Amino acid sequence: MNPNPIAVIDDGVIDCCSPLTSDVLSEVEARDVARIFAALGDPVRLRLLSMIASTNEACSCNLEKPLGKSQPTVSHHTRILAEAGLIEGEKRGRWTWWHAVPERLEVAARLLRD
Amino acid sequence: MNPNPIAVIDDGVIDCCSPLTSDVLSEVEARDVARIFAALGDPVRLRLLSMIASTNEACSCNLEKPLGKSQPTVSHHTRILAEAGLIEGEKRGRWTWWHAVPERLEVAARLLRD
DNA sequence: CAGATACATCGATGGTTGTCAATGAAAGAA
DNA sequence: TTCTTTCATTGACAACCATCGATGTATCTG
User: What pTM was estimated for this model as a whole?
Assistant: First the structure.
């Protein structure tokens, strides 16, 4: 669990949606789904997510150097990914350990290909 | 084909990428992939794409009213979707007919779930 | 306790983006 | 040709966003 709770998009709204190719999204569906894709729509966040997802766990301290971004910037991006439900953080001691949420990636994938 | 040719991301760069969960994206890969997800990261474009993708063809004139957006705004969004390779436009007579590019949706889906 | 470490938050700044009115360009109709 | 239709482009504006230095808040160490 994250120390400062992060508001994640309501799962109920997201899970409802059928693929883009089969139905026209409602305005409410589109707004929430767009938040997931917008989180994926930044190159720094994509690399950040791939770093976290391709390992079991990663702490922020190990992400700054390979990304070449400042600590506040990394913190900013992890927050956005977490708010989109794509990653979750667990604070142990001084470190925050991040892990990916595969079900969330699956939700996004299902919108593109059933 | 579109009357004014639209620059689409190089397919070679995109097709190269393995799922986010298996490898860390390079900066170049991340930049190009982010452009696809950024195109999907707007609610109006998501509804636009789902309207086009859930029918065989759609002309811009039929998209303005259900979207509730002005004609320049719709034109702006179709351009961004086309530059991301997600839709293609064909001009026949006075109308531009848009259709989705399933292979492109598939490329994006493969990044999230192999 | 004091000092160091890991991360979040704040504030500022420069760049990007969504939106629309006005205008342009091209095709068909009269 | 002149008028209408369809869509792209331009220009402008407000809102948003990525970035980082400075600061705050815990947590661990000595």
Answer: 0.92
